[in-house]
Design brief:
Elements: E1 4-5, E2 8-9, H1 24-47, E3 61-62, E4 72-78, E5 85-91, E6 96-103, E7 111-112, E8 117-118, E9 123-129, H2 132-143, E10 144-145, E11 148-149, E12 152-153, H3 165-172, H4 175-185, E13 186-190, E14 196-200, H5 202-212, H6 232-247, H7 253-262, H8 267-283, H9 314-325
Parallel strand pairs: 3-9
Antiparallel strand pairs: 1-2, 4-5, 5-6, 6-9, 7-8, 10-11, 12-14, 13-14
Length: about 325
């Protein structure tokens, strides 16, 4: 077919370009990554000149013997439940995170050491905490939209304005902890050799939390719940409920609600407790008014309110003082010997 029409050169038809369809998650990730990089640069500029993590003030700590003071690094991380900044210590060689628990030492005004005096008489203890609770909180805040979770760059989480950037960076630098958190809590995708995105997987999170709440983890001496039955199922549910209450201290309300749903709200246990309470109430025998001990007033009888004395006038108070100072007339006569 000729390419000319009416003596004019007609341009040849070009083939249509094949549009490359990108995955929606990848496109969303790129936008999030650009926004996260911009925020990170702004926060790094603000963080310049703020000094070290610690203020240099001496603190009295009681720590487990296996952790050395030279390897512990102080961090300010958001609490996984309240999201308020709290003190933690990270032991990098063992990839362990320790929570600072302050004990109020009533009556202790200061601490004295070898060449130093600490005016604050409080005492702090370091107790191990599973760092996955911190990871879950940071991931949830960064990726949750309603009941859905989005893919995000792990290295960009936790850089909100109220978070200590240096502490979060040091926490994320614990590679072994990060790998365990991603494998336990998330679905991951490798975008490139240097970039890995992750999304919270609720099924994996709930499976991990249920393992945490196993009845075998609760020491028998801590089981305060008792029931007048030999039903082992109810006893196991009681121990699981105690563990759920303990674990929920480190969970956001969203995950606490999801976890309780996994245990059906302990409906069977609650019903058994209601029946036991009703049985105890029915067994109580109340005495009739006729059986009261003589001399004890009938509680159904209303006593008349006691009359309140009127305040004394100034003249009455003056007469009382004069009477107290006066002597009886017989005191003027001497007694015969």
């Amino acid at each position: 077919m000729s390419s000319r029409q009416g003596g004019k050169k007609k341009p040849l038809k070009q083939g249509k370009k094949v549009a490359k369809e990108e995955d929606e998650d990848v496109m969303l990730f790129k936008k999030q990554q650009q926004e996260a990089q911009r925020k990170l640069k702004e926060l790094q500029k603000k963080a310049q000149g703020k000094g070290p993590l610690t203020s240099g003030e001496r603190t009295v700590l009681i720590a487990p013997t296996q952790y050395s003071g030279s390897t512990l690094k102080h961090l300010q991380l958001p609490h996984p439940r309240t999201n308020t900044l709290c003190s933690y210590y990270a032991d990098a060689p063992s990839n362990t995170l320790l929570e600072v628990v302050q004990v109020d030492m009533a009556g202790r005004r200061s601490w004295a050491g070898n060449g130093w005096v600490h005016s604050n008489g409080s005492l702090s203890m370091l107790t191990p905490i599973d760092p996955l609770f911190i990871f879950l909180s940071l991931l949830t805040q960064a990726s949750q939209t309603g009941d859905e979770f989005q893919f995000i760059d792990v290295n960009s989480i936790g850089f909100e304005s109220h978070v200590d950037t240096a502490s979060v960076s040091a926490f994320l630098a614990m590679d072994a902890v990060q790998k365990r958190a991603l494998a336990t809590l998330c679905e991951t995708r490798q975008i490139s050799e240097a970039v890995c995105v992750a999304k919270v997987d609720p099924n994996q999170v709930l499976a991990w939390l249920k393992r945490k709440c196993s009845s075998s983890r609760l020491p028998q001496e801590l089981v305060a719940w008792q029931i007048e039955t030999v039903d082992e199922t109810l006893k196991e549910q009681a121990a699981e409920r105690e563990m759920v209450l303990l674990v929920s201290e480190y969970l956001q309300p969203y995950w606490t609600e999801r976890l309780l749903r996994e245990f059906d709200g302990f409906a069977q246990l609650c019903e058994s407790e209601k029946k036991a309470a009703a049985t105890r109430t029915a067994a109580v025998v109340f005495d009739s008014p006729d059986s009261y001990t003589p001399g004890v007033a009938d509680p159904s009888t209303k006593l008349a309110p006691a009359k309140q004395d009127k305040p004394k006038t100034a003249k009455e108070r003056q007469l009382e003082r004069a009477a107290a100072k006066s002597k009886p007339i017989m005191s003027f006569f001497q007694k015969k010997k």
